[in-house]
Amino acid sequence: MQFTAEMIAGLLNGTIVGDKNAAVSTVSSIDGGKAGSLAYLTNPKYESYLYTTEASIVLVDNNFEPKQEVKATLIKVANVGECVLNLLEMYNATRPRKTGISKLASIHEGAELGEGCFVGDFTVIESTAKIAANVQIYPQCYIGENVTIGEGTKLYPGVKIYEGCVIGKNCILHAGVVIGADGFGFAPKADGTFAKIPQLGNVIIEDDVEVGANTCIDRAKTDHTIVRRGVKLDNLIQIAHNVEIGSDTVMSAQVGVAGTSKVGSNCFVAGQVGIADHVNVGNRVQIASKSGIDKDVPDGEIRFGFPALPGMQYHRSFAVFKNLPDMSSRLRDLEKRMVKLEEK
Q1: Domain housing 132
Q2: What is the per-residue pLDDT across 314-327, written as a single tens digit (0 to 9) for each?
Q3: Which of 16, 146, 185, 253 can bridge 197 by disulfide, Cβ–Cβ 3.0-4.6 Å?
Q4: How many independent structural domains does the chain possess?
């Protein structure tokens, strides 16, 4: 579909500077803009691209004034970031939705599929699985026995959901996600070998959760591993057995959460953070990249480093740490001077 500057300005309550008939059919970044694309300027450091972009239309803030000539048509709006999000959602809604059941899929006669589902090639759905309406299951997925999947959820290629797990409504599981593999539980034996501890629980993922590619969420030893409503998990994350992640928490790539730990609601966990087993992280906690959490964290705290320290304590410690070579040299000089004074 094509949209003119006049149509877009009307949707966004914006003001046009340039050709109101300029038309676009896609969205691009400002440095990668091409003819027929809509770009946007949200960060001042990218302003230089505004004067060279090939994009047909660019969204800018109401108070923006260009420093030189701009070829593109500008649309001035109150909040560029919010407007871009709205436009992307509208554009995504116009994309065709897959439907139909592939003849190459293997669906047990005891499985239940709701209306409007899509099931791709070489997908396997086992007996007693219950798939609600409008679920999209891309090729080569596996849905185990007694799995439940809520309405409108989307499974991208290669998702594997083991038996007994529960997936809520309007979730997105990206390619390679594994839900419900055994938790990592082994008991050492006297002869030095290990006995496998049976993992008899399941995984419960509530509504509106998104799980990134190749992320693994292990089933509980008993009871449940739980991912609460609205959680967003990036790629390559490991959630161990009996973990609970609170609602609307966000985790970046390569986070690892060890068994039986709990992370509260509305937390932000940056990339490569490690959370030890049996740790409780409170609500609204922020954890910086590569931090290691081995103790409980109260509500609203910020953590940096390994072992992770409170934010200001970490920065004060780092300020000292980076001066250690100079401090060490000064200390050695003082020691030499003390020796000379003692000799006198």
Answers
A1: 100-313
A2: 888 878 888 888 88
A3: 185
A4: 3
